[in-house]
Amino acid sequence: MTTSDPKTADTPTSGDHRTEDTKATGSNATGSNAEHTGVEIVLDHVTKEYPGAGRPAVDDVNLTIPAGETVIFVGPSGCGKTTTMRMINRLIEPTSGRITIAGRDNKDLNANELRRNIGYSIQSAGLFPHLTVAQNVGTVPRLLKWKKSRIKDRVEEMLDLVGLDPAEFRDRYPRQLSGGQQQRVGVARALAADPPILLMDEPFGAVDPITRGLLQDELLRLQDELHKTIVFVTHDFSEAVKLGDRIAVLGYQSKVLQYDTPEAILAAPANDTVAKFVGSDASLQQLTLLRVRDVEIERRPTAREDDPVDYLRDQVRDWGIILDSRDRPVRWVRQRDLRDARSLRDVGEPVGELVSLRSTLQDALEAILADSSASAIVTGVRGRYEGVVTIDTLISTVRTLHEEHAHDHDESDDDSSPAPGPGVPDVRDPIEKAAEAAKAERARSADETDSDGSAAADDPEQAHR
Ligand SMILES: Nc1ncnc2c1ncn2[C@@H]1O[C@H](COP(=O)(O)OP(=O)(O)OP(=O)(O)O)[C@@H](O)[C@H]1O
């Protein structure tokens, strides 16, 4: 858990943030000096007790949300996520404790101004039904008394930013939009006055999984560009892993059970409760955080379609790859395919799904499991062959991550037991199961090769390369 005393940063406060040109610069979590527009938020012993409730909905929360990062609050229904978030923009006032924004107590900031300067987007998009898309997006700039022409330009820019064609959408009413389009307008509205902070309360909760994935991608792209400080509430741990720079796993009364990067939480959940929340597919989720370019890429023997067959026959022990004239992979070929072949044009089987250096390891795993060679072909610029990723590489990558975080909780001073403890799922399990399935498939195809009368690979180490 990260706790911190409020820091005084020499950045503009949210309340001072009046023009869309203002940029705040401060230290970010990685310690880089990159310019960003977000500002730090610190929750210092924050408690909220609703009148007559008997016990606090949020009890003594300490949390530092670094400038320019996306922090996800994830936890079970009713645990206090929304209450915690709404105390940041004072839609709810804390009973005790202090919240600072860029070093200034938010109680010292005018509540209305504070809210105008903190973007807020909620599950139902919360659009005004009687206002057009343009009027909805321009709400806060209008309150800030921007000139009409400036509001108009800003609305167009925001609609563009969230992937809606202004000409098509600006004059529609919310009822004339799909759920996903309404969410986009909600995000455009939250961003319109260029606030340093964006609070998002299950903003994608009400749309179908495909649209949800697209909106998540869009948010990642926006954040790459804008570097706001985003606080995002969700029930969905995989959404938290995808979007968060850090995740705060909250228990009842917003108790911070673990506050760390998605990688660290997946590799070493702090206790049984977090482990259960993370779920048994933690290792599969870890694969979504890494890209093909981050791991070892192996080579396989290759030849172009018009190369002589002998050229490949001499090199292939198990699998080889045939490339077209522009070095794009076209077919897998086995040793036995080459025995009587006369040309490389008509042997082998078409390559399956290809992955790029930017694909996630999750994409690579899917490609590997669908491919009889138990590896995924990686392509680079203009689809040119780069190499292959194997399931063994994926397993060793996840093992290394797990080992790196094995001692994360050794010095822990809270009451949580170190992972892996009783009930903590073995995070390597699902990939190893996938590997076993792929190996079984490989063994089956090797048997087929034997019964065909051809030799299996002489060197067992060479199998599956
Ligand atoms: N206005 C209120 N008056 C009294 N109790 C409230 C009020 N708002 C929320 N609560 C209670 O405070 C607790 C925390 O609610 P909150 O909405 O913050 O949780 P949450 O984690 O966001 O839940 P969910 O994920 O279901 O939206 C709950 O027990 C809820 O019933």
TrEMBL record:
Keywords: ATP-binding, Nucleotide-binding, Transport
Keyword Nucleotidyltransferase: no
Domain ABC transporter stretches: 41-278
EC assignment: 7.6.2.9
SUPFAM superfamilies: CBS-domain pair, P-loop containing nucleoside triphosphate hydrolases
Database matches in Gene3D superfamilies: P-loop containing nucleotide triphosphate hydrolases (3.40.50.300)
Highest taxon of the lineage: Bacteria
Pfam families: ABC_tran
MF annotations from Gene Ontology: ABC-type quaternary ammonium compound transporting activity; ATP binding; ATP hydrolysis activity
Annotated spans, Disordered: 1-36, 404-465
Compositionally biased tracts (Basic and acidic residues): 426-447
Compositionally biased residues, Polar residues: 1-14, 24-35
CDD domains associated with the record: ABC_OpuCA_Osmoprotection
Annotated InterPro entries: AAA+_ATPase, ABC_transporter-like_ATP-bd, ABC_transporter-like_CS, CBS_dom_sf, P-loop_NTPase
Family note: Belongs to the ABC transporter superfamily.
Protein's name according to its UniProt entry: ABC-type quaternary amine transporter
Organism whose genome encodes this protein: Gordonia jinhuaensis
Lineage of source species: Bacteria, Bacillati, Actinomycetota, Actinomycetes, Mycobacteriales
